[in-house]
Amino acid sequence: MIVIFEFSLNKESDKTLYLQLYKKLKNEIKNNIPADTKLPPIRKLAEKVGVNPATVVKAYNLLAEDNLIYKKVGSGSFVAPTQKVIRPETGENMLEHGQIKLSENINLASAAPSKELFPVEDFKYAINQVLERDQGEAFSYQKSQGFLPLRKSIQKYFMNNGINSSLKQIQVVSGAQQAIDILSKILLDFGEKIVVEDPTYFGALQAFNSRKADIITVKMQADGADLAELETHLKEKQIKFFFTMQNFQNPTGVNWSFEKQQQLLKLAEEYDFYIIEDDILSDLYYNESRVKTLKESDEKDRVIYIKSFSKVFMPGLRLAFIILPDKLLPELLEAKYATDISSGGLTQRAFDFYLREGLLDKHIDLQRKLFRKKYNLMTAEIKSELPAEIKVVYESKGGLYLWLKLPANVDAKELYQAAVSIGLVFSPGYLFSLNNIFSNYIRLSFAAVNEDEIRKGIKLFKKIYYEYLGKEIDQEYSPLL
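Structure (tokenized):
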């Protein structure tokens, strides 16, 4: 059913027409129109109220920003159901995305590298070379799919890492979060079922929740998600996709085994679903040999692969890449264009130059050695400073995170609030799950801290932990007290 509106706009008013239309539509949606009702097509509504179609587009965009309507590519705009918002009470989601300035604190929450680690001089060289070469063309709009030379460079990068894809399958986007958001828009209708690892990345949960997806969780194990549990769900219901971080998963640090990767691909083929592989950390392996992505073994186009370098490069550049099946490309291009037309032209050209000059490989090699040293230091400090009842759940072979389990009677959220008061921040476990089963877990990240801060941070954590228990430091712990 398409709703019919009976109202007019005041063209003599000082208020712009699109704001008038937005407010009238907002009032109707909140008071009179049921969820999932289709709104009139842009041109029909423009004719009805006597305005330019661009006016309707602006009004619809404002409604979408307010989460009052949702858009289905090729179908139109619809009234959104009441939103269930995931919103932590203490603002740790801001820490997760590196949006709070913590210069006076020891930040064991941020997954973004410290700005001192950014390759500023090399990238400045790349930008200067591009400006000299391309002049004003460097600031022009790119095609929505991305700057063609960059797509060729990243295709070669993928091939060198065992991933074969055609050039037309590669889409440039403005960061991994935009990739997740756009894929949610083109793959999900409201209420469709998906599966995620538990725990998992908070930003992905937000994106899927915004589409009102029916989110099913499967628990993480030392070698990947519990695939027996996954198959139990698959036998009961059809899912649209499984979201996974195969290498050094956020927040657990788990690396999927090759055997489980193969099992997952077989399940995707048997039960007909896509796998979204979010890869931000596979480059940060600590052993001599690199880890395998799931996409390397994907022979049936089941894996939609997202690659971002934000955690090993410079997060503010907002660049990521998607490899997706050919049949999804038209919808993704349309959604990308509707979102921001294209990713930044100068950024794409400079990153292309940076890749072609071999500067990224050089930088990642340096980062790998640095973060391996930080990982070894943090694990050693935890073992020597913290009481035995605090456990590192999984031994990681790379990445930026340690996932710690506290005693069952310790609330990580309360511990976090106490820590902030003395200048220490970390990520409480409840942030990474729809359930509350990780209330006594925390994630520690060593991305944004130096070695001295790691040592001091673990000592501060020890201090607030004992104060929380009402005990003296090093007093023997008893869970019965």
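The CA atoms of residues 116 and 448 lie 9 Å apart. The chain has three domains: 17-79, 92-117+361-469, 134-357.
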